[in-house]
Design goal:
Elements: H1 2-25, H2 29-37, H3 39-60, H4 63-91, H5 99-120, E1 123-131, E2 139-144, H6 155-166, E3 172-176, H7 186-197, E4 205-208, H8 224-233, E5 236-238, E6 242-245, E7 250-254, H9 266-270, E8 278-282, H10 289-294, E9 299-302, H11 313-319, E10 328-332, E11 335-339, E12 357-365
Parallel strand pairs: 1-12, 2-3, 3-4, 4-5, 7-8, 8-9, 9-11
Antiparallel strand pairs: 2-12, 6-7, 10-11
Length: 372
């Protein structure tokens, strides 16, 4: 039901925003000049401009991106109109030009340029965490999520990022969900899996499924089994409510995504594990913090939120309880939580709420820290 209503609401929203923008463009001097000769022509030109903007982003990207760009222009234009109405009342004089519209277009353009850079210029984010657990030596973890291959990141682009990660000399690499999407071409999936296999690690590469990996609509040109096979061929270990004990004293625990009906509770995954070992838990969606803290895991890694992606989506996710955290580091009891904004994102090639990243975590046993 919700998926039927949402597209209808989206269309109504787009129509409403278009109408507001049409009236905004009508205030420009060149439209007013046309209006003196023909009211119909002026209205047509004013309507054509936002429609062409919508069409451009629709053809260049997709409907979702077009709607988001239009929403930003609309919101900024409304804010500019309000500011200039207040200033006009203070100065008690009408504006000769449509300064609100000029400023709205300029600010939207700057915002989209910055948002494009935030999305495509993938940053390196690092954490150094100390532990008194039985780690034999420091461990470097490379951590990524949300590549959504083929939607906003090609297999070749992913491979270039794996070269950067390989240069970090990680001891292990973890991929925490949404590696692929419903629209991912098989070629991109295979290229990316090969890129994963090229990363040299000490203790291996581990993957947990996200909500998109198994496919919602099953129309892509490869099956979930083919994804599993490609990962296995490239020495990627898939963990589904399973754990792997490494020889250095670290245990990697991978949870099924919350969309899996048979997912086990977090505490049951650690009940039989050695509490003296460092327990690294992977869960795509950061929305089970209470149970994960109760499990006694030492470090919990998640993705899914894209760091908010488009403001204020992250804040809405927190307010509605969809997520326990949108981005960054948090500590609850003995469990530390990190949420990544993702190495890419879904559908919209702009990020106004965050930036794209890969994460490097250095786990340091306190026994290896020199004392003064």
């Amino acid at each position: 039901m919700i998926w039927t209503i949402l597209p209808i609401l989206l269309v109504i929203l787009i129509v409403g925003m278009l109408l507001y923008l049409v009236f905004g463009f009508r205030r420009f001097a060149f439209i007013r000049a046309i209006r003196k000769k023909s009211r119909f022509l002026a209205a047509a030109v004013a309507a054509l401009i936002p429609l062409l903007l919508l069409l451009f982003f629709l053809l260049a990207f997709n409907l979702t991106t077009a709607a988001v760009v239009l929403l930003h222009l609309f919101a900024i234009w409304v804010a500019c109109d309000l500011v200039f109405v207040i200033i006009r009342r203070i100065r008690k004089k009408e504006w000769q030009h449509n300064y609100a519209g000029i400023l709205a277009l300029a600010l939207t353009g700057v915002l989209l340029i910055v948002a494009w850079q935030n999305f495509h210029s993938i940053r390196r984010t690092s954490y150094q965490l100390y532990t008194d657990k039985n780690l034999s030596e420091p461990v470097r973890i490379a951590f990524i999520a949300d590549s959504h291959l083929g939607v906003t990141m090609s297999g070749e682009a992913f491979a270039r990022e794996m070269q950067r990660i390989n240069a970090e000399t990680p001891d292990l690499l973890v991929i925490v969900g949404d590696f692929v999407d419903d629209d991912t071409p098989k070629e991109d999936m295979l290229v990316a899996c090969e890129a994963l296999g090229s990363v040299e690690t000490t203790y291996g590469i581990y993957f947990v499924f996200g909500n998109h990996d198994k496919g919602y609509y099953q129309y892509r040109d490869f099956s979930s089994q083919e994804l599993r096979d490609a990962m296995a061929e490239n020495d990627v270990t898939i963990l589904e409510d399973q754990s792997v004990s490494l020889e250095n004293g670290l245990i990697v625990i991978g949870r099924q995504d919350r969309t899996a009906s048979d997912r086990l509770p977090a505490p049951s995954l650690t009940a039989d594990l050695n509490p003296a070992s460092f327990q690294l838990m992977l869960d795509h969606q950061p929305n089970d913090y209470q149970q994960e803290a109760a499990s006694g895991a030492d470090l919990m890694l998640s993705g899914h939120t894209h760091g908010g992606h488009i403001f204020p989506a992250g804040q809405i996710g927190l307010l509605t309880g969809a997520n326990d955290r949108t981005y960054g580091f948090e500590e609850r009891g003995q469990t530390r939580f990190i949420v990544t904004s993702g190495i890419s994102g879904w559908a919209i090639p702009f990020k106004t709420g965050c930036f794209s990243e890969y994460v490097v975590i250095d786990l340091v046993p306190v026994t290896t820290v020199p004392t003064e």
